[in-house]
Specification:
The complex is a heterodimer of chains A (439) and B (222). In chain A, 9% of the residues lie in helices and 47% in strands. In chain A, the strands form seven sheets. In chain A, strands 1-2-3-32-31-30-29 form a seven-stranded antiparallel sheet, with helices on one face. Chain A has a five-stranded mixed sheet with strand order 5-4-6-7-8, with helices on one face. Chain A folds into two domains: 120 residues, TolB, N-terminal domain (Rossmann fold); 265 residues, TolB, C-terminal domain (Neuraminidase), CATH 2.120.10. Chain A is elongated. In chain A, strand 10 and strand 11 form a beta hairpin. In chain A, helix 1 packs parallel to helix 3. Chain B folds into two domains: 89 residues; 110 residues, OmpA-like domain (60s Ribosomal Protein L30, Chain: A, 2-Layer Sandwich). Chain B contains seven helices and four strands, in the order ααααβαβαβαβ. Chain B has a four-stranded mixed sheet with strand order 1-4-2-3. In chain B, helix 6 links the parallel strand 2 and strand 3. Classes of the chains: A mainly beta (439), B alpha+beta (222). Chains A and B meet through strand 17 and strand 25 of A and helix 6 and strand 3 of B.
């Protein structure tokens, strides 16, 4: 299994994997850097699925790769002679235990007469001598990657207690020389699809809570304007034309979806100030939330729908504030560092991700809502645009390498870091993590 | 003008109607009144047809004189119109010259007006003292030429939040607008826009490149 990884162990105790994914559409090159630390990892053995051809190999490779990338699983090596199929009632757990196997994944697939692929997997708890999950999917052979991600989600959830995000999508902006494009890709960088392209810059894509739309900012007659484009989340494709919200006089930007998907909070800059307004998507009526002579932008809803985070420079420097959605007392939340911006609530509203500047570098940080303690998660010099996975365990953000924009992922526990590098000449920026797939 | 034409046409119709019953009004109205060959035809109308009494020579002469005067008036009118058009063209040329003058003034080498960018410190929209003379020159220029329109485009360097930079660029442009208005420019002469960090002038991550990207550009509109 590990033959697909090029493994370099540096003297800093950092293990660096580079996975060259050879299946599917041409996509971002994926490099995985897993920071080994003292914490115990969950050992897991994923045998190649029983079945013919590359697809059998692919399914187990994707499962291994998904789990490895979280930084909390240790993928174990195996012997080719080991059985790949379901262990029956008379399974010899003692024999498996003697191979030092703890969590075992086996599976199979067959091509059905109707052209579909039927894949199944079983997860065994060898020390507990029991099958803990068994699952079967029938789908289009084109969906083989999604089937494998689905299995990885189920394994992840069983062994960690948290929902997996392997089937989710990420939207980001690809900036080329004369063009910007809004792209949706699988969360592992595969199957990228353009859903909007323009000669004007694009920024701030944001998924609607149900994944059926993306709001973003581009320019209309040289003014920033908020657009909404309808998409099919599972297919990662546009389903209709983009529409402009408003536009209201001035610069319109920084869209944020309300948890019910019925409203957008946006920033409108006009007459030397920028304020946050709530726009109803039903009738485009608007309600002003903030009102003072400074910059107020980057609204972000709490998942309980009660409050908004935003960035304001009312003290002369950008800092993060919180305000009730119906307006009211604005409370400053950040006091560490001269520049804190781009706040995002975690799915359980227990912490916020933000960018933090300490006079030298811009990094992604995490601030605990109760204690106010800030933890810096990244080590780039110009990290920005953090977006949190729907399970709250990983943050994707924009960074750079050799002068090019790339996407990086950092686990909330700091134990895994990944990077996505686009095709040559492409700057990747402004990532936004989509919601869970609804089964 | 139409009334005059109908009057002349009616008169001609009456005259021609006497000379030949086969001519219809429609035919007559299509004739070119200013064609000299047609004028000659009127001289043959002094005949009595079907017992209708022919007009006296004096009457005919009066009618012909009236027609001639009508033609002369028409010719004079056309001449007047041409003179008026020439005058209007002359005014346009003045306007061209005035606009060329404005352009020359704007493009004069090494003048304050030829400077079209104002630069800022990081995360600041405060206009630095060193740019005061440039801003005064543009403000005074806008005041002097109320027909001139300008767009101020605020920009930022690549550091920090893109959305915050979009708002910061807007703030830079708006503050410049206010400075121009204080100097006597009209608010409706000035449009403001922000591209935040999206339109760098210089691609580079060193301090010098970044300092060139933290700017407001002054774009004069045609």
């Amino acid at each position: 299994m590990l033959s697909i990884f090029r493994m370099i162990k540096s003297f800093f105790g950092i293990i660096f994997f580079s996975i060259a994914m050879s299946y599917g559409a041409v996509s971002a090159q994926v490099e995985i850097e897993i920071i080994a630390d003292e914490g115990a990892k969950i050992p897991i053995t994923v045998l190649p699925f029983e079945g013919e051809g590359d697809q059998a190999k692919l399914i187990s490779e994707i499962i291994s790769s998904d789990l490895a990338k979280t930084g909390i699983f240790a993928i174990q090596s195996f012997d080719k002679s080991w059985s790949r199929s379901k262990l029956g009632d008379d399974a010899d757990y003692t024999n498996w235990a003697s191979r030092v196997v703890q969590n075992l994944v086996v599976g199979n697939f067959v091509k059905l007469d109707d052209g579909r692929l039927q894949a199944a997997f079983w997860l065994y708890d060898i020390p507990g001598q029991a099958m803990s999950v068994g699952y079967q999917i029938k789908d289009d052979p084109k969906q083989v990657r999604q089937m494998a991600h689905h299995f990885a989600d189920l394994i992840y959830e069983k062994l960690t207690g948290d929902k997996g995000v392997f089937r989710t999508k990420i939207a980001y902006v690809v900036s080329k020389k004369d063009q910007s494009a809004l792209v949706i890709a699988d969360s592992d960088g595969h199957n990228p699809n353009e859903v909007f392209a323009s000669k004007e810059p694009i920024l701030s894509p944001r998924w609607s809570p149900d994944g059926s739309k993306i709001a973003f900012v581009s320019f209309l007659k040289r003014k920033a304007a908020v657009y909404v484009t309808p998409v099919n989340y599972k297919k990662g494709r546009a389903t209709g034309k983009s529409i402009v919200i408003g536009p209201f006089p001035g610069s319109n930007s920084a869209p944020a979806w309300s948890p019910d998907g019925q409203s957008l909070a946006i920033a409108i800059s006009k007459d030397g100030k920028s304020d946050i307004f709530m726009i109803s998507l039903r009738d485009q009526s608007r309600v002003q939330i903030t009102n003072n002579r400074s910059i107020n932008t980057e609204p972000n809803f709490s998942h309980d729908g009660k409050t908004l985070l935003f960035t304001s420079d009312r003290t002369g420097r950008p800092q993060v504030y919180q305000v009730p959605v119906q307006g009211g007392t604005e409370v400053r939340l950040t006091y560490t560092g001269r520049y804190n911006a781009s706040p995002h609530f975690s799915p359980d509203d227990s912490f916020i991700a933000l960018i933090h500047y300490d006079e030298r570098k811009f990094n992604v940080g995490m601030q605990d809502m109760k204690s106010g303690v800030v933890q810096i998660l990244t080590d780039g010099s110009r990290d920005q645009s953090p977006s949190i996975a729907p399970n709250g365990k990983v943050i994707v953000y924009a960074s750079e390498a050799n002068g090019r924009g790339i996407l990086r992922f950092v686990a909330k526990n700091g134990r895994a870091k990944l990077r996505y590098v686009g095709p040559k000449g492409d700057d990747l920026r402004e990532p936004s993590w989509g919601p869970f797939i609804k089964d | 003008m139409n009334m005059k034409f109908l009057l002349v046409a009616g008169l001609v119709a009456a005259l021609v109607g006497c000379s030949s019953k086969t001519k219809t009004n429609a035919d007559i109205e299509q004739r070119d009144l200013f064609d000299q060959s047609n004028r000659g035809s009127f001289e043959q109308t002094a005949e009595s047809i079907d017992g209708v009494e022919a007009p006296s020579e004096e009457e005919l002469r009066t009618q012909q004189d009236e027609l001639k005067r009508e033609f002369e008036r028409e010719e004079q009118r056309l001449l007047d119109e041409r003179v008026k058009l020439d005058e209007q063209n002359a005014v346009t040329q003045d306007e061209f010259q005035r606009q060329a003058e404005i352009k020359r003034e704007l493009l004069q080498n090494d003048s304050l007006l030829s400077q079209r960018s104002i630069f800022y410190d990081f995360d600041s929209s405060v206009i630095k003292v060193e740019f005061q003379p440039v801003i005064e020159a543009h403000g005074n220029f806008l005041k002097k030429h109320p027909s001139v329109r300008i767009r101020i485009e605020g920009n930022c360097d690549d550091r920090g939040s893109r959305e915050y930079n979009l708002a910061l660029g807007q703030s830079r442009a708006e503050q410049l607008k206010q400075a121009f208005v204080l100097l006597g420019a009209r608010a409706d002469q000035i449009d403001v826009a922000s591209y935040g960090a999206e339109r760098p002038l210089v691609f580079g991550v060193d301090d010098e490149s970044r300092s060139k990207n933290r700017r407001s550009d002054l774009v004069y509109l045609d």
